Amino acid sequence: MFKFKKKMTIVLILILFIVVGVGVFFAVVSYKMSLIPEMTFEDMLAYTTKDNENAIVTIGIIKDGETNYTVYGENASVLKNAEYEYEIGSITKTFTSSLLCKAISENKVSLKDSIDKYLELPEKEYYPTLARLVTHTSGYKGYYFDKQMINNFFHGEKNDFYGISNKAFSEKLAGITLENREYIFNYSNFGISVVGSVLSKIYGDNYPTIMDNYIKSELKLEHTRISDSKGNLSGYWNWKSDDAYVPAGGIISTIGDMMKYLELHMGEVLPYLSLGHESITKVNTTTKQYEKMGIRMDEMGIGWMIDTEKNIIWHNGATSNFNSYIAFDKKNQVGIIILSNLPPNYRIPATLMGVKLMTTLQNQQ
């Protein structure tokens, strides 16, 4: 009995230590997060790269008609300018939506069209429109479980979507039933991947082929591509050519190309790109915590987030070992790109640094 009580006492003490430890951890995290709104962009960059010899953060700025970029390393030291190849994660979605805008301008498709007009699906009363897909109000979840995800987990595959084929994706899509209504905003990799499937049908080829052709022939970007899991950095996700989720996050690019891409969206060289910047629906997803950090998602365009208060059109992206942010103010012709080879949960992500930098540049204007 005495031994039992002794063991129970030890267990209770351990639990107490754990509870206190967790409490202290979250208190520290909460305190650090509370400091972020008061930090300058330079403070954020210095903290994020502090004593990390592997950090390579590239920041591009367009302002006053000038375009330039800087590469930062450990402790925010300025490195020699070089074109590193970054996974841009969900910024891929803006490429998918840009191609959709092109298809709209060519009268190949309409945002009012439901997806069963283009995809072979079982007859149902309702399928979502492209407008609801690109604004994440279709009702589709962020993703749907696939048995391949189990295989990925046990093989140490960092990309959960690796090996989920278009066939498996189509079967899953066919089995989902939604109501005919606009659902609340729910960021959906699945939904944007459906848009990729529609584009494949419209242009008569698989998504990697049509997107690579679009990037090279229309956008004129020489160092941007559907991921081949290779590059001059490390930690890239693996993808297969038939993976269905590639339209949601499968592009690799460089700062030079992303600056050109930013210029295309800010200017009128390809007029149809402006379709993506026009508000389609209000989403009202700006929480108090987001607002405190300067992040606003008031409305949605075709694949783009819109901060109506600051007049910023933006998107971010993240994979296991990369995170990124793109934003622009068309009225004042200010834009930025942040490409980082650090995980999105490492210290201060590119999105928070980007919002601070973008706001600073706007105030200078």
Topology:
Layout: H1 2-35, H2 41-49, E1 57-63, E2 66-72, E3 78-79, E4 86-87, H3 92-105, H4 130-134, H5 147-154, H6 166-174, H7 189-203, H8 207-218, E5 225-226, H9 246-249, E6 251-253, H10 255-266, E7 281-282, H11 288-293, E8 299-300, E9 305-307, E10 312-318, E11 323-329, E12 334-340, H12 350-364
Antiparallel strand pairs: 1-2, 1-12, 2-3, 4-6, 5-6, 7-8, 8-9, 9-10, 10-11, 11-12
Offer a concise description of the structure:
With 365 residues, the protein is an alpha+beta fold.
Report what the structure shows.
- With 365 residues, this protein is α+β, with helices and mostly antiparallel strands.
- The protein folds into 2 domains: 2-32; 42-364, Beta-lactamase (3-Layer(aba) Sandwich).
- The chain is 39% helix and 14% strand.
- It contains 12 helices and 12 strands.
- It has helices spanning 2-35, 41-49, 92-105, 130-134, 147-154, 166-174, 189-203, 207-218, 246-249, 255-266, 288-293, 350-364, and strands spanning 57-63, 66-72, 78-79, 86-87, 225-226, 251-253, 281-282, 299-300, 305-307, 312-318, 323-329, 334-340.
- It has a 9-stranded antiparallel beta sheet, with helices on both faces. A 3-stranded antiparallel beta sheet has the order 4-6-5.
- A hairpin with a 4-residue loop joins strand 8 (299-300) and strand 9 (305-307).
- Helix 3 crosses helix 7 (189-203).
- The protein is globular.
- The termini are far apart.
- Mean pLDDT is 91; it is low at 22-31.
